[in-house]
Amino acid sequence: MIYPIVGYGDPVLRKVGEDIAKDYPNLSDVIANMYDTMYNACGVGLAAPQVGLAIRLFIVDTEPFSDSDDLAKEEAEQLKGFKKTFINAKILKEEGEEWAFNEGCLSIPDVREDVYRHEKITIEYYDENFNKQTDVYDGLIARVIQHEYDHIEGVLFTDKISSLKKTLIKKKLQNIMDGKARPDYRMRFAGPKKGR
């Protein structure tokens, strides 16, 4: 089932997600539906708050990034095979130089800005089978994870840009809140025109 993606301005995007237990209702269905929703919207990551659930769950599949001509062959291979579910995640460490990358978000259509993030992270989480994992990631994989992790902390990528950039995108953000954005996937808007 494909969920509508929650648009900028909805209060659920500002909530810190709650940890969930192994017996969370229909967890495997929720995860499968999130993957369907992400693929339908051509995304590389999706967090539960983006489908209206204030829980600590996000998914990542970086395969679409692997076709970029700007990547070294080794990094392209890593991206091609990277698909993971993160439950109750906690970033333990962020290290290395901060580097800029032009980010977008399914909840904030038609807005892209350069965001600085650390190049390497250590993250602890449970996988979809509720096995505890601690992994280290770097490069684009780390960046996608950090972006989705921010969602379960109630943070959006637009929070990490300069005041000037925020001023420049203010009208676009207002249009999303008012339900005037028209991406090619279903959205649930915070403003007067809900749905599509």
From TrEMBL:
Q: In the UniProt entry, which residues are flagged as the active site?
A: 148
Q: What is this protein called?
A: Peptide deformylase
Q: Which InterPro entries match?
A: Peptide_deformylase, Peptide_deformylase_sf
**One Pfam family matching this protein:** Pep_deformylase
UniProt keyword annotation of Cell membrane present:
no
One GO biological-process annotation of the entry reads: translation
Its lineage opens with: Bacteria, Pseudomonadati, Bacteroidota, Flavobacteriia, Flavobacteriales
NCBIfam families xrefs? pept_deformyl, PRK00150.1-3
